[in-house]
# Entry
Amino acid sequence: MKYLLIISIVINIILLFKIIAMRISIKELRVDYAERSSLHTNTLLRVSSRDKEICRLATTLNKTLTQLRDSYNSYKHGNSEIKTAITNITHDLRTPLTAILGYLEMCEDQEYDEATGRYLTIIKERALHMKKLTEELFEYSILSTREISESKEDVFINQVLEDCIMNFYPALSERGIQPVLNITQEKIIRSLYPSYVERIISNLLNNAVKYSDGDLEVSLSDNGRLTVSNSAKNLSLVEVNKLFDRFYTVENARNNSTGLGLSIVKQFAEQMDCPIKADYKNGKLYIEITF
# Structure
């Protein structure tokens, strides 16, 4: 009986050490897996345990890690190739489009009948539209690589806003829109990317001109909050929440738009850490960005 008790105690001690060793091995695997799953290393999991099941578990986890890394690398490589292709294609398209527009301007100086003039006008409108879409795609492909080609400078937001509004006056007048402006007298100067600020404001104004039901209000507060609002009937909250999605427009067919305007605005804003949001109240669309 005494010997059985001793044997039982020894067996229990052995089992206890085995359990402790397995727990240590599992902890090693957990910590090691958390580090390896970051996808920034090609090393695999290693365990100190000689237990067969623990070793099999490590082997299975290593296979999963390898497959995950291969999938991620394939995605990253393919995504990079797509972006490069879009950039190259849009760049190649811009040159012949510029040449076409140049020849069209030369044709306008020549004498031609009414029908020919009408056809040339249509061709020029289509060519200008293609050029605009190509430039948007080119800009977005560059932007999506997260590469910033300029340095931050002190930007006088008030002045940039006023200049952009003046540039849009012909388009506003054509649509019979008389903008209501409320721009602070306080100088709003921020360290930002100048071209980004200009493009953000231009895209917001362009979006308002396209979709406004006849009005436009632009305000810049003392704390640098820019709000662009306009009436937009029959706009749902679902559509408002999608406004910053790439390639989404409320009326794509009517406006012949890529849907990249507000998406580019959001990308630029995020790269400068400027909060941006859209809201819809009482039939009016509000887009707000804080510089």
Residues 52-108 form the longest helix (57 residues). Strands lie at 153-156, 180-183, 189-192, 217-220, 225-231, 276-281, 284-290. The chain has eight helices and seven strands.
